[in-house]
Amino acid sequence: MAVVVNMPRLSDTMEEGVVAKWLKKVGDKVEEGDILAEIETDKATMEFESFNEGTLLHIGVQEGETSPVDSLLAIIGEKGEDISSLLSKNSNKEEEKSAEKSTSNISIPENVQIISMPRLSDTMEEGTVSSWLKKVGDSVEEGDILAEIETDKATMEFESFYEGTLLHIGVGEGESAPVDSLLAVIGPKGTNISTVIEAQASGSLQTNQKEEKTEQEKEVSAMPEANSQETTSKADKNTDRIFASPLAKKIAKEKGINLASLKGSGENGRIVKKDVENYQPSKIAATSEISKSTPVAAFAPAGEEASKEVKNSQMRKVIAKRLAESKFSAPHYYLTIELNMDNAIASRKTINSLPDTKVSFNDMVVKACAMALKKHPQVNTTWNGDTTRYNKHVHMGVAVAVDEGLVVPVLKFTDQMSLTQIGSAVKDLAGRARSKKITPNEMEGSTFTVSNLGMFGIQEFTSIINQPNSAILSVGAIEQKPIVKDGQIVVGNMMKITLACDHRTVDGATGAQFLQTVRSFIENPVTMLA
Q: 178 pairs with which residues across the strands?
């Protein structure tokens, strides 16, 4: 059955979008997760993926054309399906909207602003309010953080683009709501907004948004949380917010430390991780804190079963969905080889002896894979059903563990970067991922992924392919072990790497040849410096 795909709201202030480029044409087969088009919003140009599968039957907005949010973008259905009724229905719907606007819409009172649940990632369908940093009646300045909103990819701080008083909260803490639903209302203190809320619910509200902000003014800073419901910032008795990093809040919660008793060493007195870890309470204070924070029967008696239900975060649910889709749709197979890291160790030592230079073994692996992908383009592909997309660019995804799961920052055009550039970029992206400051846009577009658990002492493992990639490389630890060299048993520094391949796009011989090329680069690092 054919489905209508509407122009999505890809940013919290987006009112219309421009189709920069269609990546599918009428008649093409579409799989769930395929990129349909590149859509230019008020903030950036973003890839828009399909949540449906079938054949692209109709394109409603041509390249370069502008269309309002929720207008007809495309229709996907079965090949040859009659969609005339859908087109007619959509035309009537647009006429009804115009009629409603001219006759039945209720205008918003002057200076009152309706805040809708923003679409903070391209695949976000609903958001969960982790915490409100303002309460009804509070004064709000432009740029103030209103709430922490959990998307399908991260928990992000959502700032206000308006000033006034917070008159209404439409989604409570811990509650979820679809994109574009009523999140909050801001306006002059004492304004009666009962009719506004009723009109919003019925869809007859006529908005009167302020002029567009500049790109910098509208930017929302990404702040993923480890457990958003447990790291909500709390106010003291005077309702002053305690400024602490998400990680500091989490550690304090786990240790039962009252943040109000700490002095922050961060910017503007912000409490950071080291402040919590270095906290040394007095014996009396410590005893008091333990008695307050430790629940009765913290440990279950022997022989008694105990469990606790913890609500899955949006990030965890999406990770589960994506990995299951990958594992059960792509026929995985695995290839493992062992590398001699003696030369790599010596080269890294020489490189890192240079001033202001720091390169890790993982940086070498990333560089080697990027160069190998140019020699083996079959591995740098995407399965699209009837077609296979060969990516001429190399965008390397680097898996990074965060408290709540796993994120994959992406290094764009990695094959054109030097080892030191890769090192700096990985350090920056991974650092911002762990400190909750990476944006969804920086985690999209990979063509190949590297996952490294060697730092945890894992010798060998297999990964699930990060679709739409065709392969992912798993990197183990470097171990000293006896090897045979020139007929003699000597101690060698060995490392195992495993390539997981999608058999639809990468045959066994192709995967094996790719690994041999990676080995030649890593075992002879000088070849990567040419």
A: 126
- 180, 332, 342, 503: which is the annotated catalytic residue? 503
Tokens of 87: 């087109």
Q: Is 332 a catalytic site residue?
A: no
Q: Which helix (H) or strand (E) holds 293?
A: helix 283-293
Give the chain's domains with CATH numbers.
3-103 (2.40.50.100), 107-218 (2.40.50.100), 246-293 (4.10.320.10), 315-528 (3.30.559.10)
Q: Using CA atoms, how far apart are residues 122 and 46, in angstroms rounded to an integer?
A: 7
Region of residue 279 (phi > 0: left; psi between -120 and 50: alpha; otherwise: beta): beta
Distance CA(515)–CA(519), nearest Å, equals 6
User: Catalytic annotation on 507?
Assistant: yes
Tokens 């909750």, located at residue: 436
Kindly state the tokens that stand for 515.
């690994």
One digit per residue, the tens of pLDDT, for the chain of length 530 reads 788 898 888 766 678 888 989 999 999 999 987 889 998 876 677 888 888 889 999 999 999 898 888 889 999 999 988 888 888 877 766 665 555 544 445 567 778 888 888 887 666 788 899 899 999 999 998 878 889 888 876 778 888 878 899 999 989 998 988 988 889 999 898 888 887 777 666 655 554 443 333 333 333 333 333 333 333 333 333 335 577 765 677 678 777 888 888 888 765 677 877 788 788 765 444 444 444 444 555 555 667 788 888 888 777 787 888 889 899 999 999 999 999 999 999 999 999 998 888 899 999 999 999 999 999 999 999 999 889 999 999 999 999 988 777 889 999 999 999 999 999 999 999 888 887 788 888 888 999 999 999 989 999 999 999 999 999 999 999 999 999 988 999 999 999 999 999 999 999 999 999 999 999 999 999 999 86
Nearest-CA neighbor of 522 among 459, 450, 465, 442? Answer: 450
